[in-house]
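Q: I'm writing a short explainer about Permease for a general audience and would like to include a description of its predicted shape. Could you first generate the structure from this sequence?
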Amino acid sequence: MGSTHYMGLLADNQPWNLLLFMAVPVVLAETIAVTELAILFRRDVPRVVADLNRYAGLVAGFYFVGVVVYLTKHAVIPLTTSGGWRGWVDVVAVGFYLLGVVPLLGMSLLETRAVGAGWDDRRRLQVHATLVGLFLVVAHVAMIAGMLDPGVVAGWEPTHVMHDGSSMVGMTH
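A: Of course. Here's the predicted structure. Afterward I'll give you a sentence or two in plain language.
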């Protein structure tokens, strides 16, 4: 049994990778999603809810840009140049995780008014809500693909599986 690099990243360097690459982005995204619902369904949203939504939307995109830059340099490029991907499902998991930067950065750019400065509040809210939904879709595709065992789907099989479930590619008995 093997795992995708997505799951390996989260499992390594505990608890730091889990916090930095999963907890922080998910807490920010879930905060945005929940406060977005309050904003969409209430006419008189408490100021703290609107401010929390704006702050989380502002921070999430810029934070995730840093994650994407770091993982591209330290994982994507080395895996690509060395042929280390564990099949298509591994590429999908990592690719969709990194694709989360598009909606998150979009929200940050909306919050800074770098995008949509001339839009009315309704249009900004529609675009913001669409970006929240888009992030949830790409994040869930990444999570589902990331939890798959690459050995179950065509395209990758470890050469040797250790007793603890880890693999040593290239090692045989």
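A: For your explainer, you could say: Residues 169-173 have pLDDT under 50 and may be disordered.
Q: Perfect, that's easy to follow.
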